[in-house]
């Protein structure tokens, strides 16, 4: 059967384990040999016992766990050709020419580059005597499928990324807990959530917890926001503004804990679809990302989505809010 390897890279998120599990089991079901690569690209470069063959039972009892059981890492070596050559050799020696990458736009960019570089890497490895002519002939094409694991929901081309829903659950639990003490003490609480350039967690969290005021990067505060906020608060509570104010920064709590049912199902569906995409891939199939589109797991072009995501991030940094929001709309 085909050799398929799955790895998680960059920041972790809840639901990655469900995706890994689905890739392993769907892969075995369709007759592939499936491998884990531990610690992302670093494990691919280092090889050895970082690359292990998976069995049906090796992914039992992981779906309810947060984070990623196969580890994630950032890897400097993979950015250089030298590192990618080591990675390519480690894959070829195990007959792996199909990769499932679960990560953010950086990890997906790396995978795309790897595919583009693959013919040159094979040539170099052959010249150096690291692989044989026969190994080169057997491994001419590298197939890539990506899935986006991120709690920020900041990737263009999918309705939801793996982990976002669980993070939202963490947020509303925290706000509900804080709200009960806030009401008892006439205190005002300000909560900072994650999301980087994307206000999804703030917006959805605010609606779900009936926040009085919300700040999102796509709609930055105007200079008179304190007046507007007081006006808004006044309509709720007449004798406001003597309020004691506390700030809570939720931080990595949002990325931790058990994945929600939605993220487990999302990981399962995307993982299964990723394997099908690899099985159907031919020599001229471009890398794709499995995305959620109207509750369907579909394949979208990887690099087009990555470039759009990066363009949105740049627009946000340049304070071109309207352009960013427009670009981010469904592709
Ligand atoms: P994320 O995937 O969450 O966006 P990073 O941007 O840190 O996280 O990328 C994760 C890893 O992917 C990097 O540590 C590196 O090994 C690899 N990577 C990212 N960008 C590139 C690139 N342009 N070329 C090669 N590898 C890359």
TrEMBL record:
Localisation: Cytoplasm
Name of the protein: 6-phosphofructokinase
All copies of domain Phosphofructokinase, residue ranges: 4-236
Residues of the full protein shown: 209 to 539 of 912
Signal peptide positions on this chain: none
Entry superkingdom: Eukaryota
Native source organism of the sequence: Penaeus vannamei (Whiteleg shrimp)
């Amino acid at each position: 059967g085909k050799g398929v390897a799955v790895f998680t890279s960059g920041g972790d998120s809840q639901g990655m384990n469900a995706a890994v599990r689905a890739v392993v089991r769907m892969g075995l079901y369709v007759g592939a040999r499936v491998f884990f690569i531990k610690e992302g690209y670093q494990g691919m470069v280092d090889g050895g016992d970082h690359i292990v063959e998976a069995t049906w039972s090796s992914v039992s009892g992981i779906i309810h766990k947060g984070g990623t059981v196969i580890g994630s890492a950032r890897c400097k070596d993979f950015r250089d050709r030298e590192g990618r050559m080591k990675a390519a050799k480690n894959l070829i020696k195990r007959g792996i020419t199909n990769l499932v990458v679960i990560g953010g736009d950086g990890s997906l960019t790396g995978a795309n580059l790897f595919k583009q570089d693959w013919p040159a890497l094979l040539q170099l490895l052959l010249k150096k005597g690291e692989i044989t002519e026969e190994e080169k002939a057997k491994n001419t094409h590298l197939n890539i499928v990506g899935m986006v694991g991120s709690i920020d929901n900041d990737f263009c081309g999918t309705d939801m990324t793996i982990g976002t829903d669980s993070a939202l659950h963490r947020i509303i639990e925290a706000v509900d807990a804080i709200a009960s003490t806030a009401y008892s003490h006439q205190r005002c609480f300000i909560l900072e959530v994650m999301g980087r350039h994307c206000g999804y967690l703030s917006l959805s969290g605010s609606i779900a917890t009936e926040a009085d005021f919300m700040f999102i990067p796509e709609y930055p505060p105007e200079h008179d926001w304190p007046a507007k906020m007081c006006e808004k608060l006044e309509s709720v509570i007449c004798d406001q503004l003597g309020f004691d104010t506390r700030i809570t920064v939720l931080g990595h709590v949002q990325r931790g804990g058990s994945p929600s049912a939605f993220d487990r199902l999302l990981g399962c569906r995307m993982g299964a679809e990723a394997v099908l995409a690899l099985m159907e891939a031919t020599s001229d199939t471009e890398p794709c990302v499995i995305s959620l589109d109207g509750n369907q797991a579909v394949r979208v072009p990887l690099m087009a989505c990555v470039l759009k995501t990066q363009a949105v991030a740049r627009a946000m940094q340049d304070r071109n809010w309207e352009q960013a929001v427009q670009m981010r709309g469904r592709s």
